[in-house]
Structure formats: C-alpha cells, structure tokens
Design goal:
5-stranded parallel beta sheet; single chain; 199 residues; alpha/beta; 12% strand
Length: 199
Amino acid sequence: MSQAAVLAGHAHVAALRRALAALEPEVPTLEAWGARLARVLLHGGRLLAAGNGGSAAQAQHLTSELVGRYVDERPPLSAIALHAETSSLTAIANDYGAAAAYARQVRAHGRPGDVLLTLSTSGRSGNVLACAEEALDGRLTVWALTGSLPNPLAALADETVAVEARATATVQEVHQVAVHLLCAAVDREVALLTGEATT
C-alpha cells in the first residue's frame, strides 16, 4: 500500500493549485511541443502515445483530439494511442511479455521524425521505458509527461515536463491540463500553417 496520505477535500484542491502554479513555467515548452508536433503531422508524420491506467486514458484523450478535433475545424491528424489496439496489445504481451507491449508497436508504426509522447506518473513503468528506448533507436522524438524528478523516463526522453506533486491524482490532473495546452498549441499552429488563422 502507498505510504502517501490520501488527499481529500480542501487538501486535494490545495495540492492541485500548487501543482498548477508550478506548471506555469512549462507552458512555453508545451506550446513549443504543439507547434513542432503540428509541423510533423501536417508533413505526413505521426504521433504515438503511451501510458498505463489513467495515463493511458489521457494518451487516448490526446489522440482523439488530434484525429477528431480539439476546438476548431482542421484536417484530421495521425495519432495512435498504443494501448487502444487491444488485440495487438494482448497478443504482443502474450507472445513477447508485457514489457514489449508498446515497444513492438513503436517498431511497427513509428518512423524517423515521428513523435512518441509518453505519460507516466512515476516515470518508472517498464513497458513505457521500453517503448521510449525503441523510439529513440528508431529516431523518433520522445517527449515525456511525468511526476516528480528524477525518474528514468525523464532521463531517457528528449524533453520532459515533470509535475512536482506527491499524489498520483494531482499529477494526472495536471497532465490533463498539459494535454489540453498541447492540443491548443497544435490547433493554433495548424491554423497558421494552413492559412486558416483567425484574426
């Protein structure tokens, strides 16, 4: 059982408020990621996203916003949440072991210049670390959303936005804000690059 106290009520909100304030200096990084990702996707590249549990849900939230739309109309963008193809995921885990469940998909779908976004509150999930290593070997760009530093995923990734918070729930809630900031930045850059920017 976790040694961290369960945050509830006002303590939960206070922890979230502190973590959001600490995210503010990372907003330029997230906006730069969004601009770079928009250029990759508009030129035929792909985003792969990976996480476990709540982080998997956030990975799928991100990819749905890119393939569909976040706010404004724009072309659909290629993005895959690696946990969402359950037949592939379970077959790979059965045949090659759970640690390979994402890495083998990165090898199948990733191309040099694509982006892998990893989400992990601990930064220590074996299957996420393995897919980050596979992505780097395949010359993909690897970005990480993690919890507190230091952690192995942040050490592997090309760039990391880390949320300094003790509670997993707080980290995941701030990651959701980061996902939305990334989506907004993608949409803004797509609009600029396609000449559909509003005045």
